[in-house]
Structures are given as structure tokens and as C-alpha cells.
Predict the 3D structure of the following.
Amino acid sequence: MKQPLSLVLLAMLLTAPVFASAGEKDAHVHADAKPAAQAPRPYEYKTPKLNRAQVDALLAKPSELLFIDTRRPDEISKIGSFPVYLNVQVDGIDTALPFIPKDRSIVTVSNHAGRAGKIADLLAAKGFKVVGAVGSQNYEEEGGKIVRIVPPEPKTN
């Protein structure tokens, strides 16, 4: 009885380094692998999230519309935005309120409508005519046309 137990223990001791090194190789492979894309956060705001068809219908009446893009300028230049917009980030909204007209339909913009929804709810609570929030990347994925501003080449003297 003692001998079979010793053989099992000896076998475990001899094979343990093999299994450990295999685990290390797998850990190394997984460490090099790209992380899976995170699922987008669910939209949880009172203001409706607009799709491409809804935005296009609003774009048909530009004299009644104002886009407020809530993204940083570097995001706008990299990803693009709508043809004309007022750029106000989340932390600057209170100081921008006097510059936002109350007689226009307002659509807030961010990459996937998260920040846009937050600002839209805030503006609506302050009496602005907010009709929705849109993600510029979502709009483009649905086939909408986003405007990208290409910086000019540096001047050579």
C-alpha cells in the first residue's frame, strides 16, 4: 500500500514542472493577446438617442437646428462631426449656457451618445428645446456622412 502511494507522489513531482511551464506559456500567450472589446454602456438618459434617419430628417431644416458637440477638439478632428456645431465640453456647459439659443432644436453629440445624453438631459432641465442625442460614430456606422476637417500642411519658408 505504501509503494503505490509513493509512486503516485513521485509521478506528480516529476510531471509538475511540465504542467507549470505549459501554464506559463499559456499565460504568456494570453498576456500578448489583445483584450476583447468592451460592450458599449447602455444608454440611460431621458433624452432620446437618435438614429441616422432621425438626424437626417432634422438636418433637412438647418435653420431650426443646433448641434452641440460635447467632445474634446482632438476627438472631433480625429473622428469628425456634423457640418456646423457649437463645441462645449461637459465641464464647460454652465459657462456656455448664455450662448446657447433657446429657440432652436438642439441635438447633442459625442462619440456614442454617452456624454451627449448627459448634456442633453442637463440642457432640457434648464428649459432648452433638446430633441435628442447622437453618437457621431454610430451615425457614421449607419451610413451617415460625417465631416472631417483636415489640418493644413505646415508652411515652408
